[in-house]
UniProtKB/TrEMBL annotation:
Protein name: HLH domain-containing protein
GO process terms (BP): calcium-ion regulated exocytosis
Protein species of origin: Pristionchus pacificus
GO MF assignments: calcium ion binding
Native organism taxonomy: Eukaryota, Metazoa, Ecdysozoa, Nematoda, Chromadorea
SUPFAM superfamilies: EF-hand
Gene expressing this chain: WBGene00272156
């Protein structure tokens, strides 16, 4: 029985680690669901995943700065809003094929544009930017 519990525990940990530390360059480092840009995640980064990214990432303020930098890098016209085109361009340039495939449709944009104004506001992108 103990062996079964240990095997189950470690297999779940492996799955969590795979979900948590995405190899696609976004460093989607959460144990809960995130949006298509690996922001606005339900939970904080796991310590094991943060250790892989480097000690400086453990500081929450730095995570907020990374989130803000990501928002700014997607907002190519600098108006403080992300259009569907800006988001799609970001996702299709140098990201994993899974994210690029999801970028083709507009479901991801509609999910993020919670106030339905046609833009992704900073607070819709990530609660820390509200």
């Amino acid at each position: 029985m103990l062996i079964f519990i240990l095997v189950t525990f470690f297999s779940l940990m492996a799955r969590t680690e795979q979900h948590c530390c995405s190899p696609d360059g976004f460093h989607c480092c959460e144990t809960g669901p995130c949006n298509i840009f690996c922001c606005n995640c339900d939970r904080m980064c796991s310590r094991a995943c943060l250790a892989r990214r480097g000690k400086r990432s453990i500081i929450e303020d730095n995570q907020d700065n990374q989130t803000q930098r990501r928002f700014i890098s997607i907002d190519t016209n600098g108006d403080g809003l992300i259009t569907e085109e800006e988001g799609r361009d970001f996702l299709l340039n140098g990201t994993s094929s899974d994210r690029a495939k999801r970028a083709i449709g507009s479901e991801w944009f509609a999910e993020m544009d919670t106030n339905e104004d046609g833009f992704i506001q900073p607070g819709e992108f990530d609660y820390s930017l509200a």
